[in-house]
Amino acid sequence: MIALTRYSLSMLVRGQAYIAPFVLFGTAIVVLTTNDLGPITGTYSACALTQFVCGLWFTVAIVNTEDRAQRSMTVVAAGGQRRVLAANALAATVVAGGLTAIGVAYPAFSGTHTVTAADLAVGALAQLVCGVAGVAVGLLCSRVVIPKAGYAVFASLAAIGALTMIPPVPPVSPVMTLLSGPEPAGRMLAPIAAFGAFAVAMLVASVLIAEQVARRQD
Q1: What is the residue extent of each domain of the chain?
Q2: What is the spatial distance between Cα 15 and Cα 26, in angstroms, rounded to a whole number?
Q3: Are 52 and 160 in contact (CB under 8 A)?
Q4: Adjacent-strand bridge partners of 112
Q5: Closest-CA residue to 152 (of 134, 214, 144)
Q6: Which of 24, 163, 25, 15 is nearest to 99 (CA)?
Q7: DSSP, res 112
């Protein structure tokens, strides 16, 4: 699995498909958090939203790096579609972890905030939760599930709208609402961790669904 994950990351770098989502992430973080005032947890809400969108984009980029013939060979060599999809998801999660480090540190130094350890923990956990949710959605919007690019774009936009604008739909919207609320950071850890478990369940389900769809298309 480690070798497959490294292969997924290397293909992402070689194809330079990481540039657009990384530029989006960097631009959004700088624009939305530089010289920001007030509770830093509110600032982390914008970072979490950015993580979700970029996590989705990075995942699609990772899965779509190989064309159909190349992916078929990778699946055979790896021993199955599920292993390749799991490696793709793990690679995208690694990327989300790297972006989380930036998304937690930059707002703390660029704005005027009183930052505690609980604030940093909440910010990191919330961004990881939204990043993993983005990976889960990205798998279902990739070429493996939706072969036509136009339909994939519409599906991605619909998913982003549903998970960020409909409050009851977990985990992204509730996490953003929680971060923007008046609760102290210490009290946010437990509910955000619960949403994290939901995001992991989403990811597992997405891998299984993508595997079944890919088998039928093959």
Answers
A1: 2-217
A2: 20
A3: yes
A4: 37
A5: 144
A6: 25
A7: B
